[in-house]
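User:
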Amino acid sequence: MQFQQLTVNARAAQVNLEVERIANRIVRSWDEVAERLHLGGRAAKYDDVHYEFVGGAADALRKKHYDKSLRLLWKGEAALPWSSFRDCNEHERELIDLAERNLTDEERAIRGRITSAEFKALLDREYTLEQKRAIVAILSAIGHGEAYAWLVSASLLPEVHSTGAKAALTMQILEEAKHFVVMRELMLAFGVEIPRQSVWEYLLLEGALKAKGLDKFFGMNVLVESIALSIFGVLSTLPGLDVLRLFHLDESRHTALPANYFKEFPLSKWQKRSPLGRVRRLKMALPALPLIMLLEADLAVLGIDAFDFAGSVMRKVTHLSERAGFLKPVDAAGQTRFFNQVFNAYCKATRPGHRYKDFMLSETTAGEAELAVEREAFGDVSTAA
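Assistant: Predicted structure:
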């Protein structure tokens, strides 16, 4: 695959790696000691070194329950055509019609999926080893996040009111489980090592899981899911990664859930404006900045400017936060100035000849379909002016 690879300041990249390694040792050691002393520690029972939950993959159990549940998943419209349900999509309705008329052998063949061997051969043809490692490093940043999204969504279920909200969140739990196991197989197909969580991912995701009450909506649906949406948006047009369009579509719904929920059950003025709550939310968001700096070299391999990507992400996070009522210590305009100052200061220090750029107007989502989804979810804020 041909990319216009960007030049990265090698010393800055090495410093970012060393800072992350040192911080990782400190944070992990602290949490291990705290856990032994029953004083807290890591909240997630998750093994990011092996990219599995504690207890292992248990693929046999997954196939018996998760796979079977999806095979047997039914839709109200198909089972009860006389009801008010309209939950089948256009393709499902077409398949129902075809099934009623009996599919031919040729039609069954057309619906067949690419084999694992063919898919791996496609990846080998399209990408160099360096490009494979970069793609997997970027995907793993959100692959580990899918594990936490699964846990956070489940922990939120008792917190929300109404049958509709619980039904919506239950489907999110199902989708996060699907995302985790599908993403894991996708990355394994690349045939390169899947990296552990960086310390910045660890702090970001642990913060979302440890958040109290509905602040979990901010940590996961607003912050982490916006990063996921943007990663899927920037990679989904690459060869072999078109499945990420389906992930992207799911994430757009997930990012919209808090605002839709708060239309029915609004946050109180104190929940919105509490100084302590604002600081907590800012603290949750801060690890995203060094995480993006750490990903700079991998994004550059694919011709993606990390700070164009960061600006696109943070613009959407700021919009979603304001829309849901998750206020932070400074308003949207202040956040835009702050992020631009940080991004430009870093670039000035590491990129010779850098000139000021409004990174918060950048848009890195590539596909037209994905951009249309984001326009529907975010309005005008989803794309650069």
